[in-house]
Amino acid sequence: MISLPRAGPACHPDLRLSGTESTQSARVIKMSKSSSDPVSCEGLVAENLHAIQQLVDLLVVLPGKLYRQTFGARGKHVIGKHVRHIIDHYVSFQKAVSGDPSKPLDYESRQREESLELDIHAARNRLLAIARFLDRLSLSPRNAPLWMEHVSGDQRVPVSTTAERELVFLTSHTIHHMAIIAMLAEQGEVEVVEGFGVHPSTLRHQKQLQMQMARSA
Q1: In the chain, what's the furthest Cα-to-Cα distance?
Q2: Is the CB of residue 53 less than 8 Å from the CB of residue 131?
Q3: What pLDDT, in 10s, does the model give residues 130-142?
Q4: I need a labelling partner for 56 at 20 to 30 A (CA). Which of 3, 48, 88, 163 fits?
Q5: CA distances from 49 to 68, 116, 120, 196, 207 (A)
Q6: Can you name the residues that pair with 157 across neighbouring β-strands?
Q7: What gap in Å lies between CA 9 and CA 43, rounded to an integer?
Q8: DSSP-assigned beta bridge partners for residue 78
Q9: pLDDT at residue 40 in the model
């Protein structure tokens, strides 16, 4: 079971890259807020950890053959490819906030490790390493910038961002691909848990509707 974060108000990575035990240089993230008070990232980390936990739990019961199986008329849909794609984005984020401050967050130049598409155990272990990274995001008393390079056409455009903004993106990105994974798993006759691949905003909306229906009953 992945533990929920013990993070304080700000996101401060003091983490290692996936697959290593060496501590990386800590990088402090600039907060975008009108007030000087830091924005809490605990909830943002928790949303990512919840999604990762669901994905890890599925990989525990998913047959390795189904993980590598191709779906669709053109055979382009593979659960392993979607899992590897999810991992790639977290690794890019981790490198940006734990590595050289002069290097940008770059989702374009991903590792794309083919072994993660084929080896379900390697993918699960990498997801657990990512969860440990997220769990270590902690409070920092000072601010530093985070920026990313966005490729637009043939140009690389620098974009100012924050760890919090990227955690929001990563939640949406992960859950989007999990929704596809859920459909493929069910085609392979593997049942997924309720709420798998459903965005937290949708779950909150559904809960509000249930509460309204309960009050009007």
Answers
A1: 58
A2: yes
A3: 999 998 864 443 3
A4: 163
A5: 24, 19, 19, 13, 21
A6: 150
A7: 10
A8: 70
A9: 56
